[in-house]
Write a structure and sequence with these properties.
The chain has a single domain, classed as 4-Layer Sandwich (Nitrilase/N-carbamoyl-D-aminoacid amidohydrolase). It is 22% helix and 29% strand. It contains six helices and 16 strands. The strands form four sheets. A six-stranded mixed sheet has the order 5-4-3-2-1-14. A hairpin with a 2-residue loop joins strand 4 and strand 5. Helix 1 packs parallel to helix 3.
Length: 275
């Protein structure tokens, strides 16, 4: 499949302008799937819950319906970071909509929230780590800080994801996460990883850009600098399923999935009682 990442600078709170940029890229980029940054539709650095809620929408909602139409017109898929307002509860989520031709295939809600930007006002994701079926393969989604937790990517790999898409807003203080985490998660899980970071300045933070596409062998396939960019790479998603790596046949072979010992990993998921 042909994967694209669009790296740009959303304007804080300007949903119509950001949506126009995204729609033009969905129409213009030749790819099976286009991945956009975290909060691409709304911006990230809100200083109050009230301002953040004003930039949020339900899913499905006006923007995702327009995006689904654009995907139908071009027969492609898109993953778009946005603020979701739950239609039933009114709760605010930092989310990513997974959109196909004429359809909203699903939503991922950010599970791990730093005390930063809009995440200070958002609810923690409550839907776990879904895997989305597409015509070209199985996709998992994490958002920004989620990639710092190895358990999250591993759960998606074990559930069958072949490609991990990561909309993100990594600022300068997150250089290690931006530069190293995509390679580590791809290598340790034998899964393709695409990070879609933003650029520019917002609410006193400068964002790094440096989006990347890394294949399931941990090899860099495409990367951006700190300006607006389109990354494109051809990926064989089925290669992610072949986790056994043969270095020297019969003498040096590794499989970071089959060789796990989950019966000894209990402390990782143990939840201590409230203090």
């Amino acid at each position: 499949m042909k994967l694209a990442v669009y790296q740009f600078a959303p304007l804080l709170g300007d949903v119509p302008r950001n949506l126009d940029v995204i729609l033009r890229q969905v129409a213009g980029i030749e790819a099976d799937l286009v991945v956009f940054p975290e909060c691409a539709l709304s911006g990230y650095g809100f200083e109050s819950a009230e301002d953040a809620v004003r930039a949020a929408e339900p899913i499905p909602g006006p923007s995702t319906e327009l995006l689904a139409q654009a995907c139908r017109d071009r027969d492609r898929w898109a993953i778009v970071g946005m603020l979701e307002r739950d239609a039933a509860t009114g709760a605010l989520y930092n989310a990513a909509a997974v959109i196909g031709p004429g359809t909203i295939a699903g939503v991922y809600r950010k599970m791990h929230l730093p005390f930063l930007g809009v995440d200070r006002f958002a609810a923690r994701g409550d839907r776990g780590f879904p895997v989305f079926e597409t015509p070209f393969g199985r996709i998992g989604v994490l958002i920004c800080y989620d990639l710092s937790f190895p358990e999250a990517a591993r759960v998606l790999k074990v559930k069958g994801a072949q490609l991990l898409c990561v909309p993100t807003n990594w600022p300068e203080a997150a250089t290690i996460s931006c530069d190293l985490s995509p390679f580590v998660r791809a290598h340790e899980n034998h899964i393709h990883v695409a990070t879609a970071n933003r650029i520019g300045e917002e609410s006193g933070f400068r964002f790094l850009g440096r989006s990347r596409i890394v294949d399931c062998e941990g090899r860099l396939r495409s990367e951006a600098a700190a300006e607006k960019a389109i990354l494109v790479a051809e990926l064989d998603l089925a290669a992610s399923d072949r986790s056994r790596k043969v270095i020297v046949p019969g003498r040096y072979e590794v499989d970071r999935i089959a060789h796990r010992r989950p019966e000894f990993y209990g402390p990782v998921t143990h939840v201590p009682p409230p203090a």
